[in-house]
Amino acid sequence: MSGPSQTHQRGGAERVLRIISGAWRGRRLRFPPLPAIRPTPDRVRETLFNWLAGTVVGARCLDLFAGSGVLGLEALSRGARHVTFVEHEPNAARAIEACLEQWDRERRCSWRVVAADAQAFLGAAGEPFDVVFLDPPFSAGTLAPVTARLEDGGWLAPEARIYVECPATDVPPVPAGWARARSKRAGQVGYHLYLRHRGNAAE
């Protein structure tokens, strides 16, 4: 989950990540060496969760292109009420589920892992989420249809926060009413936080 520098490159050698903060702080996440997974690195995740500040605690979160699952796991560690992980690669989805079963043996956290294509998942009846993480494959052209389905399908709480990663040279295609609250660049990757204000124009 992220972009094409050595740290971000799909299929790179990095296959171990750590949780930065919260109940699982310092735990190491190991995930399969699949070329489709490009994990969001520590420094970007730390910035993201600083942006989100207290909004993660008690939030319902959707990690839509979950990959390693590190964004959703970080959210659970920091007190999210629920996280749904959606990942189309079955081996990656199984790895996320195995990690959760190990870390959350007493099932104190609420979570769900779905092995499915993101657009197919969003084709079902929606349920509102407070925070959504979007880090799709950069070359797939999926951001525009996915953001439209999120907006139109009942998947977003009235003032949901939506995190988006994309190439640094791109402007994310988001619906009107998503206001860009924060934006930064890490190498060739742009990462952005949007706040949904239903009925308002995006900034």
Task: Give short descriptive properties of this protein.
two-stranded antiparallel ribbon, 203 residues, seven-stranded mixed beta sheet, alpha/beta, Rossmann fold, globular, disordered N terminus
Average pLDDT, rounded to a whole number, is: 87
The first-level CATH class name = Alpha Beta
H-E string: EEHEHEHEHEHEEE
Low-confidence spans: pLDDT under 50, at least 5 residues? 1-14, 199-203
State the strand order across the main sheet. Answer: 5-4-3-6-7-9-8
The gyration radius over C-alpha positions equals: 15 Å
Annotated CATH homologous superfamily: Vaccinia Virus protein VP39
Q: How much of the sequence is in beta strands?
A: 25-35%
From the helix content, strand content and strand pairing, which structural class follows? alpha/beta
Number of strands: 9
What does this structure look like?
By secondary structure, the chain is an alpha/beta fold. It has a single domain, classed as Vaccinia Virus protein VP39 (Rossmann fold), CATH 3.40.50. It is built from 5 helices and 9 strands; from the N terminus they run ββαβαβαβαβαβββ. The strands form 2 sheets. A 7-stranded mixed sheet has the order 5-4-3-6-7-9-8, with helices on both faces. A two-stranded antiparallel ribbon has the order 1-2. A hairpin with a 2-residue loop joins β8 (178-186) and β9 (189-196). The relative contact order is 0.17. Residues 1-14 and 199-203 have low confidence and may be disordered.
